[in-house]
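Bumping with the actual sequence this time:
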Amino acid sequence: MSLPKVFEPRTFRARFATFWSDFIRANYRNPEEVSVAFGVTFQTALNWWNGANRPSGDVVALAGRRFMDFMEGRG
């Protein structure tokens, strides 16, 4: 019997900018489209696109409503 996989919040947090970048690149054509879709500045969208930082919880919640499978397999 194998041990259950343990969720590591710190590791997840550290990797989330990459998860988000992968998600928006798979679902949007460019940072301009991301900016419009989420109502953020172009620079914010570009930072997300490049994996330089991650969004706040409200943006993730909006994505979760549009793309129900966004967080599947992450963790």
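The tokens above came from a reply further down the thread. The helical segments are 9-27, 31-38, 42-49, 57-66.
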